[in-house]
């Protein structure tokens, strides 16, 4: 057994398959500076690789055969092809980990892989993907192969399963803890049992005093609580803290004490301060009243401890994230969709880093600008930023960076580009921006020279009236000019698109699509994604619905999560009616067709 550590930081299943989610790396980087020994683990990729292996599939098929499940015709065929799947799974995973590129030729020939239901739409998909090279075609076929296996798992041993989220449905809009609580008190699922085995190994390798569970999304809340449940039952002396994006947005008004059957601390906002105080509490250096931004249970009631003033950690003073212990070589690259930005997001390995903390604009009325991760804007220097970049590159061996800012400031992007060029650092990077007029041709050219390959930004409704109502601070003409500057310099632009904003009319939705059509046809935008507007409790619209002519109709808060709100929009269009048409049109534009269709 290895020496004990003070903190084990865990990302539970599932977030991303191609690269580590950065939350535990940020916290480990900080803990290194205060002499708190720590380890980190991404149980998402480890669970996935345990399932999708020769041993894992053998176990899966044995469970299916023992369970007498009613199978669809497609899955009956997959069970009949059991030996073909078991024989091919390890080489396929190795290929998707970029460890054996020679398999591409065998896979592309359509003789190597057993084929299930997902392959039936391959003719349509080949049209969508165009004339792929051998490697890409093979990765796409291997992705379909794994998705067939995922469908088999969902129909049989574990209906919660998904590659980038797990049990997400029961964690979304969970105003009440009842359904989650009932599921957690059911017998463990097929995936749960594998999760428990891997967690047991982690605890045995380096027994911690504290386990920190990072929950960025609803799709890994259930697994986080299963981890907590296992630890409570088998290692009751280990304390458990939970934090992350889900907690920061959904659990601010927490009242239900039952969640503390699974964890001891629930922290809000940036994790460094709360984690420091928790480690000091466990070391006997402070008492419980000195905790910061942390929910605990006292006398069977949820109590929020937040000693003021908080310990301040300015963004410019924080150390570089440390990815030590995360297995970059194990992550896999899927190829499932035609969207080029989604491919970049899910296809390649990226180091994730923030240029600035929060958003320098923080005025958009649909955004959670009242929360710390957006409203608390802090900057750093280009020298400090590039020092962190060099440290992370040396540690991970990965040269690509995804700067995960809410909106990277143009001044910092200029300074960053100049510093990278000054130090002669060759790297590829991309980030999220606002379509500011500051992004003129000269700045875009500078960014491209410094390695910028893509930007993402919110065009949202593509209506000047509604952009004003949103307080976006941009207009359609400005977006067109800025995206053209990026395009002219070889930087791919992805636009986030929104429909269903309060008071948005049918004609405005149609006009928005026309703007999007023109941006694609002119080559200004190469990628985009539509989502339907949702009111959140932390946004200006959610706090002042009367100003936007909508009525909040629910849901009723029942002591657990509180974020998304239901609303009625008496002056707006029937927005769900347009979902299919908007997505179909966008699918066409992504493929360079359909520009002449009304």
Gyration radius from CA atoms, angstroms: 24 Å
Biggest sheet record: 7 strands, mixed
Tally the helices.
Answer: 24
Give unreliable regions as ranges.
none
**Strand segment tally:** 16
Strand order of the largest sheet: 2-1-3-4-5-6-7
* Class computed from helices, strands and strand pairing: alpha/beta
Give the CA-based shape: globular
* Percent strand: 5-15%
- What is the mean predicted local confidence, pLDDT? 92
Distance between the termini: 67 Å
Helical fraction equals 40-55%
Describe the protein's architecture and organization.
By secondary structure, the chain is an alpha/beta fold. It has helices spanning 23-33, 43-51, 54-67, 73-80, 82-96, 103-108, 122-129, 134-155, 168-171, 178-184, 190-205, 221-234, 245-250, 272-282, 340-347, 372-375, 382-396, 410-422, 441-449, 464-470, 476-488, 506-521, 540-543, 579-590; strands at 5-11, 38-42, 208-214, 239-243, 265-267, 294-298, 301-305, 351-353, 401-403, 429-433, 452-460, 492-499, 527-532, 535-536, 551-554, 564-568. Strands 2-1-3-4-5-6-7 form a seven-stranded mixed sheet, sandwiched between helices. α13 (245-250) links the parallel β4 and β5 (265-267). α2 crosses α11 and α11 (190-205) packs across α12. The longest helix has 22 residues, at 134-155. The termini are far apart. The model has no long low-confidence stretch (mean pLDDT 92).
